[in-house]
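Order emerges. As here.
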Amino acid sequence: MGNEVILLNFWLSPYGMRVRIALEVKGIKYENREENLSNKSPLLLQMNPVHKKIPVLIHNGRSICESLIAVEYIDEMCEIALKFWTTEGEEKEAAKEEFLECLKLFEEQLGDKPYFGGDNLGLLDVALVPLICYFYTYNLYGNFINEDKYPKFIAWAKRCTQKESVSKCFPEEHRVKEFISKKKKNLNMQLLPNAMVEKKAKVVLLGSGFGIFGMTAKIALAEKVIKYKYMEQDLTNKSPLLQEMNPVHKKIPVLIHHGRPICESLIIVEYIDIVWHNNCPLLPSALYHKAQARFWADFVDQKVYHASRKIWISRGYEQEVAKKDFPESLK
C-alpha cells in the first residue's frame, strides 16, 4: 500500500469526523472510504478484527483504531521534526528517522506535480512550507536532508521559496539558526538536571487499596523509581482533596504533580512516561507501535476489566454471558 493514508469511515460518525478534522488540520492527504455498516468490508474486518468498527486510519498498510488514538498518532507524526533539535543521542536518532519517514511520505505524495495542491499552492503546501526555513539549521545539526534521496521534495521547497508570497514571510536563515541554537541550549539546561527536578517535585497518588486502575499507576511509578506520597481514599466518603482534584468524575486514581491533577489511569501512565523519560520507557518510541500499545491498553480497560467485573456483580443470565465474554476477551 506504500505511503497511502486511508480512513475507513461512515459519513455520520462523530468519531470519524474527529479523525478527518485532525487530518485536515495537519494538511495530510488521505482517501476517505465510506463503509456500509450493515455489510462491513473485508478490509474493515481485517484492519479492526477486535471491534470491527469505524473509524480506522490506515498508514503504510498498518491500522490505527479508535478515534482518539488515531488523532494522537496524526498529531505526533506531524510534530516529529520538533524533537530533532531538542534531543540528543538515541532519542535524537529516533526523531531523525521518523522525520525522514515523513519526508518520504511527502516525496511520494508530490508525484509529478509542482505543488501538493497541483499547479498552485494548496492547503498542504501552505501548512508545510514554513518548515523549509528550518532546513538550513537542521542540516547544521544533523546533515540529513539529502537532495539525492528526496529530489521532488527539495525541488518543491526551492520552488516555494522562489514565490514572493512565501519568501517575504520567511526569516533570514542565520536568524533561525541563532534562535534555535539559543532555544536548544536553554532546553538542554532545563532537561539535564532531571534528578534535581525530581527531588523538588512533589508527587502524590490518590488511590484505593484494591483499585485496579490505581495499581496501574503504582506500577508505572515503581518502574520509573519515582518517590511519591500515597493517600488512601475512602470511596464511600470521598475526601475534599479527591473532589477538588477530580471534580468531573470524583474517582481514583489521581496523580498530583506540583499541585496539578492528572486523572484516568492510562493518561497518568503516559504522563509519567513523558515527564520521567530518562529511564525505563513504558511506551514504544515508534509511533505505530505506540498507537497499538494505546489501543490494547484501552481494550484492557474497556473490555477485559468490565467483563471480569460483571462476573462477580451480576447474577443469572447476565453472569453467564459475562463468563463467556471474559475468556473471549483474553484470546
Q: What stands out?
A: The radius of gyration is 24 Å. DSSP finds 16 helices and eight strands in the chain.
